[in-house]
Structure formats: structure tokens, C-alpha cells
């Protein structure tokens, strides 16, 4: 791509594109002279994995060499090895950290409190205090963004600020006096009107200005809200505040005075693209420009016209502009916390790395003390900047009116999607007023955030608990190769988690009748509405002589952890395909229903679903082998096709779904009623020991685990427990409240086997 093209690029893409721009400044080697040296690595040293900002950008490969050269100095000083890796993105980072892996220094995590509340990142507060580092060396606005009630979880990577880029040649041609630093919101409107010309024939429209207000980057327009005394969201990011009078006033200024009259363009235009292209192609006379835009802008503009920089205009409540929120944090699961802290401190609190990045990318620093160095560096590296008003970039940071973009706390993408829908309707005038649009968006976002808060809290709790299984899985006793107990084993089953894949080593006589026996890993929830799903990929007889036709691996909801609690479950069985089960109330037996193959059509009513004549194993889901002791096959895996299972709850009514792709779902039998308020939901496995006198374990593998309660509420009916019950003493637990254990009652093995033979499942 060439600078000045019509490709739309966001700030992160531009930064990645700039990485390849070091050659424009004379090549990386000359720029980094004196910054580092040839790496001296030793296999005996600790290795820290470092994920730099924008490492997922396509052009990042051009930066790997220079970065490693700079890092060599750190390696030599602290006697460690540093591996630079490409970011897997936010979801990839979280998945890796849940599994206890991932980079030691993380950069690519969308900000949200649940990332920090879920203990993904290390609290830096005690380390800063120990090393006597005051947070005042960075922008207070940035530090506030990473601060939570339970700690400070990140430090700034850099601090980019925004100013207005002014095409002074357009002012000359229109006979308009240049604005100065005292200009106001009224001046911006008046100047934009004077400098604008409507489209005529084949000549496109020319806009006097652009405005940081679009439906691509959503909240980056918050400077305008703040400038009129409003805001988009409240301080903790959990609630929309679009209906505030100041917010509506900002919207009226942007839409009624700038966008609707056609004298200002949004930051992204379909024809010319992002603001950098708007500047260089001459579509606008005054354009927003960030420090991250400097390299592409000056490379394209050069001396083609007279230009300069101005700070954002003074609005009724003061001057505000946008600052960046890029950061580095330490993976809470790092094996080398001290070395990781030394690297993070070197990146963010010291000067070597930041100075090198300033030289390579012209990127502005995180440290307040480096702004003057950055300004001098710009002029020395790019002489065309001499005499330009660069100080406004620094002024925005030093005077504290550059405000980092804040996010909706629990579901940034979806909440912004709601906001952007109404912004789009405003832009096309499908809505008649700003107040109408903002009121609708305010209501819808707040409703969504309330639901998302519960979902995020559950996801963070689940992630933390399942990660606890990973950390403590090695403490469980090793599985027996011969089996223990008759007819069931006792105390050695477990669940292991790695990279989102959960392996259940299951024994137990069954989950049936009035006394349950299984391995279970779950979490307490208080959701009366929600969906919980997983994918079963493997059922293998591990130490059992053969796999029972009624062995089970799947997902289960239990009123509590007692043997005869109300429950709903769906599982893949050894020979009978998918089965759904329900125990409606305490003390009753479990009722089962063989579910239809999800690849076959099913019709349903509110209470009943048609079933197919043949069980699913006849159509390829599970092997049709008749499993008896005479044809047992050691280590056989009878699940031939991975299967998704989903429990959906609406009050006391539960519906089970199955799917082969996780997208198209088939109702798996009739709806089920179980009297549960708060409950435990989790994955489980049971070997169904006893039917053939077998002993030992089965191995079930589950992935794609998703627990998404959408409304936090309790049923509250008489006789229904209002919350998940305590863990009974006869359940061996791992790190509470996750359970990874063998459950058994005091009933005799013989009575269990007898009742099981009568029940048939």
C-alpha cells in the first residue's frame, strides 16, 4: 500500500504499517546505533516471553530484528533470555492464560475489569512500592485506566495524543485568517463553513474539517462529550450516560452544526478512508491527527502545501483531546515474576526501550520526562517538521487534557455496536433528533450492560476456577491401572485443563437412581435464565476392561452436590448416543430420554420433541458395537464425531440441544422440569462401573466450554434453595469452589448394581 491511498485503516493498523516505515528514516541500524548489541543467549537462563504492542500487524516482521537488538542490552544486564512473540489477540491471550501458558509480558488485551478481576494479570502495586516508583511519572489519565479496587494491573506502553492538522494553504485561498490556540467550538464551526464547498458535477465535496465522531471507532469521540460537560459512560464503565444534558449538547453540536450541514466529515469516509488519507488527499482543510499519524502524513504531504498543527478547540467545559490506552501487563501465571517485572519496568519506567521506539516509529513516549526528547528527535530525524507547532502534542499530555479512550466494562464490542447503530441512524437522519437517538441507545446499552455484567462475572469465575484445576491437577492421585473398589473406584478420578481442553478421568457406578457417582467439575451460579454448553470429543475406556454401553460424558446442572439433588444433564453414552436426564425433585430417580441425532430433522412443541426411530449410534455418531465382555476392545474410542451439547434454562424449565457444528442446534428430546434455584453447572464423566463387573476409569475429553448466564436472579419459590449449596463432606474437592472428585454414597455396591440392572441406564 502507498501512503495517501483510499484504504481505510484504524489506529492499530496504522501503527503496524508505520513499523515498516523505519526505512524511510534511514534504516533501523543507523537509528538504533548505541541502543543494544548482538544478543548473548544462554540455555541455562530463565526465558521471558514478550508480546510487543501490535505484534499481530502484518508488517511487524520488519521490526523483530531491531526490537531484538534493543532487548539484547536488557538480556545482558539481567541475565535472562527474551523471546519476542506475535500476539494471539485478546481471546487467544485469555485462553492461554486460563491454561497457565501464554506470554509473560502481555500487550494485546482489550481493557475490561473482568480481565483484571479474573486474576489474569499480576497486581503491580507492591512492586512499584518496593522499587519506589511513583505513578506520577506517567499520565494520570492512563494510570487511572488500569487501576481497579483490587490493584494496578498494567503500565503504559506509550502515550499518543491528538491535535488538529491545519492546511494553511486552504485558509490563504479562501482569504480566512488562521486560527490560533485560543480557538473555540464556535470558531471551528465558522471556519469549517468558510472552507467548505459542496459537490458539483464530478467535483467531490470539500469539507472544512473532520470530526472524531464515527460509527467505526465509537468512543473515540468522547473528547466532544467531555467538552460539553457530558460523557458516554460512567466512571467505572458499566453504564451508559448518553442521556445526560451535556452528552446531548455535544451530539447537537456535532450533528446539527457540523455533520448535517455538510461542513465537517466523520473520521472515516467511504471514498477517502481514514483521517490521514483525508489530509493528504485534500478532502478536508482541518483534520484530526494523532502522533501515530505523523509518519504517514509527513511522508505524503512533504512540501506540497503550507500546514501546521493546532490543539483541539476550547469547548464550553474546556479543552479535551484523545489519548491512547496501550499498555503492558504481567501474566499472573508467569513462572518468572521477578524477571517479568524487571522487563516491564525496563519497558515502561525506564528510557532505553522507549527512546528506541521513538527513533524507529516517531511514536510518542509513555514517560512524562521524555516528551521534550521526543520533540527534539522529531525535528532532527525529519527536518520538514522544523518550525511546526509540535508542542501541542506534548501539551495535551503534560497539561492533562488528553483523555485515554474508556471502554464499556463488560462487553465493549457489543455495547459499541448498539451505540454505533444509533449514530448511523443519526448520520442518515433516520432518527429525527440527537436526544431521541441517545435516549434509545442509553436504554438499550444499560439493559445490555446489566446482563453482560452477570455473564462476564460468571465467565471470569469459571476461568479462574478451571485454571485452578490446571494448577492443582497434579495433586490428584494417579489413576489406578487395575481399578479400585468393587464395583466402583474411590478417590482417584480427576479433571485436567489445558488450552481450553478438559480431560475427565471418570469412574463411578452412574448418575442415575437416587445416588450419583461420577467425576464432576463445576461452578455455582444463581442464574434463572442462561445457556451452558460444551463439545464432547472423546470417550475412551482407559483402565476398564471395556467401555460400558451406559458410560457418560457431558454437561450437568445440579441443585447442590448431594447424592440425590434435582438435576438436568445431557451426555454422550458408550452405545446409546446422546441421552437427556432429569431428576425433578430431591430423592426421586432419574428419568432418561434417548435424543435424536442432531443431523436428522426434529420438530418440537413447547413440551415435546419428535424422536427418530433408530438411536444416534446407528447413523454414525457412536459406534454400533454391542459392548459385552466377550468383545471388549481395550483403549477403544467410541465417539466417532465430536458433538456439542447445550443446556438452556428459563426458570424451572430446561431444554437440551445438540449440534455437530456448534451453530445449528437440534432440540434433544422434551423439555425438562427440575426444581432448582441456584445450582451448580459443570462437565462430568461416569464410567458406569458394575454392569459387567468391570473396574476402572473412562477418559472423556471436552472442549468449547461456554457458561453464559444472561440474567442474575433467583427463583425464590418455597422449598427451592436460593443459592448453590455447600460442598458435602463426602466430596473430595480441589481448589474450592471447583470440584474434581469421585462422588459416592454409603449405599453398598451390591445394592447399586442391582438397582442399576433394573433401571437399564
In brief:
The chain is an alpha+beta fold.
List keywords for this structure.
single chain, 761 residues, alpha+beta, D-Maltodextrin-Binding Protein, domain 2, Jelly Rolls, 3 domains, 8-stranded antiparallel β-sheet, 7-stranded antiparallel β-sheet, 20 helices, 29% helix, 20% strand, disordered N terminus, disordered C terminus
Topology of helices and strands:
Layout: H1 11-19, H2 28-31, E1 47-50, H3 61-78, E2 81-84, H4 89-98, E3 105-106, H5 113-117, H6 125-130, H7 140-146, E4 147-148, E5 151-152, E6 155-156, E7 162-167, H8 168-174, H9 185-195, E8 207-211, H10 222-227, H11 245-259, E9 264-266, H12 275-280, E10 284-290, H13 294-301, E11 307-310, E12 321-323, E13 327-330, H14 337-348, H15 352-361, H16 371-381, H17 391-398, E14 402-404, H18 412-427, H19 434-472, E15 494-498, E16 501-506, E17 519-525, E18 527-541, E19 552-558, E20 567-573, E21 578-583, E22 591-594, E23 643-650, E24 653-659, E25 666-667, E26 672-673, E27 679-686, E28 698-712, E29 741-742, H20 749-759
Parallel strand pairs: 1-2, 8-9, 8-10, 12-14
Antiparallel strand pairs: 3-13, 4-5, 6-13, 7-10, 7-11, 15-16, 16-28, 17-27, 17-29, 18-23, 18-28, 19-20, 19-27, 20-21, 21-22, 23-24, 24-25, 24-26
Amino acid at each position: 500500500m502507498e501512503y495517501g491511498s483510499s484504504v481505510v485503516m484504524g489506529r492499530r493498523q496504522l501503527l503496524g504499517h508505520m513499523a515498516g516505515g523505519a526505512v524511510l528514516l534511514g534504516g533501523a541500524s543507523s537509528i538504533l546505533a548505541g541502543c543494544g548489541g548482538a544478543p548473548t543467549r544462554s540455555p541455562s537462563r530463565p526465558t521471558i516471553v514478550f508480546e510487543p504492542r501490535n505484534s499481530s500487524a502484518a508488517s511487524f516482521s520488519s521490526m523483530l530484528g531491531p526490537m531484538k537488538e534493543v532487548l539484547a542490552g536488557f538480556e545482558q544486564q539481567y541475565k535472562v533470555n527474551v523471546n519476542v512473540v506475535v500476539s494471539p489477540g485478546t481471546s487467544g491471550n485469555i485462553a492461554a492464560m486460563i491454561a497457565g501458558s501464554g506470554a509473560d509480558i502481555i500487550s494485546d488485551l482489550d481493557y475490561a475489569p473482568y480481565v483484571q478481576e479474573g486474576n489474569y494479570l499480576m497486581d503491580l502495586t507492591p512492586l512499584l512500592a518496593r522499587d519506589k516508583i511513583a505513578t506520577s511519572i506517567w499520565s494520570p489519565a492512563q494510570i487511572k485506566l488500569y487501576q481497579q479496587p483490587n490493584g494496578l494491573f498494567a503500565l503504559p506502553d506509550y502515550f499518543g495524543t491528538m491535535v488538529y492538522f491545519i492546511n494553511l494553504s486552504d485558509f490563504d485561498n479562501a482569504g480566512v485568517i488562521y486560527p490560533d490556540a485560543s480557538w473555540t467550538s464556535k470558531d471551528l464551526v465558522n471556519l469549517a463553513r468558510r472552507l467548505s464547498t459542496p459537490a458539483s458535477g464530478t467535483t467531490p465535496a470539500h469539507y472544512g474539517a473532520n470530526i472524531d465522531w464515527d460509527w467505526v471507532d465509537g468512543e473515540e469521540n468522547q473528547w466532544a462529550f467531555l467538552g460539553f460537560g457530558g460523557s458516554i459512560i460512567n466512571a467505572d464503565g458499566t453504564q451508559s450516560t448518553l442521556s445526560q444534558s451535556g452528552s446531548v449538547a455535544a451530539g447537537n453540536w456535532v450533528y446539527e452544526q457540523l455533520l448535517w450541514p455538510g461542513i465537517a466529515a466523520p473520521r472515516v469516509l467511504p471514498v477517502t478512508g481514514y483521517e490521514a488519507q483525508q489530509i493528504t488527499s485534500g478532502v478536508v482543510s482541518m483534520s484530526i491527527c494523532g502522533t501515530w499519524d505523523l509518519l504517514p502524513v509527513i511522508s505524503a504531504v512533504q512540501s506540497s502545501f503550507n500546514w501546521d498543527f493546532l490543539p483541539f478547540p476550547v469547548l464550553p467545559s474546556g479543552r479535551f483531546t484523545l489519548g491512547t490506552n496501550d499498555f503492558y501487563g504481567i501474566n499472573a501465571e508467569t513462572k518468572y515474576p521477578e524477571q517479568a517485572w524487571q522487563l516491564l519496568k525496563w519497558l515502561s519506567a525506564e528510557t532505553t526501550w522507549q527512546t528506541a521506539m521513538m527513533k524507529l516509529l516517531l511514536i510518542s513516549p509513555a514517560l512524562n520526562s521524555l516528551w521534550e526528547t521526543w520533540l527534539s528527535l522529531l525535528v532532527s530525524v525529519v527536518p520538514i517538521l522544523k518550525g511546526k507547532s509540535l508542542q501541542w502534542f506534548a501539551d495535551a499530555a503534560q497539561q492533562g487534557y488528553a483523555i485515554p479512550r474508556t471502554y464499556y466494562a463488560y462487553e465493549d464490542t457489543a455495547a459499541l455496536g448498539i451505540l454505533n447503530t444509533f449514530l448511523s441512524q443519526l448520520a442518515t437522519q433516520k432518527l429525527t433528533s440527537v436526544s431521541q437517538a441517545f435516549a434509545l441507545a442509553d436504554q438499550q446499552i444499560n439493559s445490555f450492560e446489566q446482563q453482560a455484567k452477570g455473564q462476564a462475572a460468571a465467565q471470569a469465575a469459571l476461568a479462574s476456577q478451571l485454571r485452578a484445576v490446571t494448577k492443582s491437577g497434579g495433586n490428584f492421585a494417579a489413576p489406578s491401572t487395575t481399578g479400585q473398589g468393587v464395583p466402583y473406584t474411590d478417590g482417584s478420578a480427576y479433571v485436567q485443563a489445558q488450552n481450553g481442553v478438559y480431560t475427565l478421568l471418570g469412574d463411578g457406578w452412574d448418575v442415575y437412581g437416587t445416588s450419583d457417582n461420577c467425576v464432576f467439575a463445576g461452578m455455582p451460579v444463581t442464574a434463572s435464565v442462561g445457556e451452558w454448553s460444551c463439545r464432547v470429543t472423546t470417550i475412551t475406556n482407559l483402565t476398564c476392561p471395556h467401555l460400558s454401553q451406559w458410560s457418560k460424558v457431558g454437561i450437568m446442572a445440579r441443585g447442590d452436590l448431594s447424592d440425590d439433588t434435582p438435576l438436568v444433564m445431557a451426555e454422550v453414552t458408550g452405545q446409546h448416543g446422546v441421552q437427556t436426564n432429569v431428576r425433578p425433585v430431591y430423592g426421586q430417580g432419574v428419568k432418561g430420554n434417548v435424543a435424536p441425532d442432531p443431523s436428522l430433522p426434529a420438530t418440537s412443541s413447547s413440551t415435546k420433541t419428535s424422536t427418530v426411530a433408530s438411536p444416534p449410534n446407528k447413523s454414525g455418531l457412536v459406534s454400533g458395537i454391542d459392548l459385552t465382555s466377550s468383545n471388549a476392545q481395550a483403549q477403544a474410542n467410541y465417539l466417532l464425531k465430536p458433538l456439542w451439547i447445550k443446556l438452556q434454562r428459563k426458570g424451572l424449565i430446561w431444554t437440551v440441544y445438540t449440534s455437530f457444528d456448534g451453530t445449528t442446534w437440534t432440540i434433544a428430546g422434551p423439555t425438562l422440569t427440575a426444581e432448582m434455584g441456584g445450582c451448580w453447572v459443570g462437565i462430568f464423566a461416569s464410567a458406569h462401573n458394575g454392569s459387567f463387573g468391570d473396574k476402572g476409569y473412562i477418559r472423556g475429553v471436552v472442549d468449547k466450554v461456554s457458561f453464559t448466564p444472561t440474567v442474575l436472579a433467583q427463583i425464590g419459590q418455597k422449598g427451592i434453595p436460593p443459592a448453590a449449596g455447600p460442598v458435602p463432606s463426602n466430596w473430595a474437592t480441589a481448589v474450592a469452589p471447583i470440584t474434581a472428585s469421585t462422588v459416592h454414597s454409603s449405599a453398598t455396591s451390591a445394592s447399586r448394581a442391582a438397582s442399576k440392572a433394573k433401571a437399564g441406564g
